[in-house]
Amino acid sequence: MAFMIPETLRRRFSTQGTKKKVRALYWQEDYLDAYSQHTDLRVDEDPHDAIGGHWDEMGELQFRFLVDNGLKPEHRMLDIGCGTLRGGRHFIRYLDAGHYTGIDISKKVLAYGQELLVEEKLAEKRPKLVLNQEKRLRFSEFADQTFDYLLAQSVFTHLPPEYIEECFQHIRQIMGIDSRFFFTFYGSDEHCRRALKDFSQPWPFYQELAERHGYLIENKSEHYPHPSQQSMAVLTLA
């Protein structure tokens, strides 16, 4: 008689196998290569949970926050780490046609995003979904373009300090004189890797980067009730 593995044990073995595969990715690959492959795996499991869950709550929160901070339909927006369009679907619906651009390092989140555009009848708004093939924050994909509003929701929370500095160094190339770059972060007393792909940085780290690269920075966390206690800040050109 064949021995049958109970379903609860089968799921546990499957989960353990996935965790081992994910850990191996981060040991064997460049960090952002591992992160993009990990995200692809998560999209296969659940496209909504793959980018942090809280699908309805977080999509509405980031949308309302930017509108409350001056986002108008005529503005051009870059959604950095747009994921499966948790927030993007709201911005696309609100902005004028052709005024939303999302960029991500995961092919599968963008593929799901394209499906969502059809499902929610948003394709006519002509959003651009761009694959960051370099997996860098140099924004070479947008040479000679500028955006009025830029958002990095749950991006710096998954990056070591050197990638954040790269972003500060290069993002001014796609900002105009009145542009505003909003980003979330985990605050802490010191640089800390909280988990396999979660990082926190002290607020003075961001202040020092802003001063060095010619920005003004403001902490907006008091007005951003994130369910996982992410903080929010905004950069403008000095």
Q: What's the structural blueprint in terms of helices and strands?
A:
Blueprint: H1 7-28, H2 31-45, H3 55-68, E1 77-80, H4 88-94, E2 100-104, H5 107-119, E3 128-131, E4 147-152, H6 161-170, E5 175-185, E6 192-195, E7 198-200, H7 203-213, E8 215-219, E9 231-237
Parallel strand pairs: 1-2, 1-4, 2-3, 4-5
Antiparallel strand pairs: 5-9, 6-7, 8-9
Helix pairs in contact: 1-2, 2-5
Structure overview:
- With 238 residues, the protein is α/β, with parallel strands linked by helices.
- It has a single domain, classed as Rossmann fold.
- The protein is built from seven helices and nine strands.
- Strand 4, helix 6 and strand 5 form a beta-alpha-beta unit.
- The radius of gyration is 19 Å and the shape is globular.
- The N and C termini lie far apart (75 Å).
- The N terminus is likely disordered.
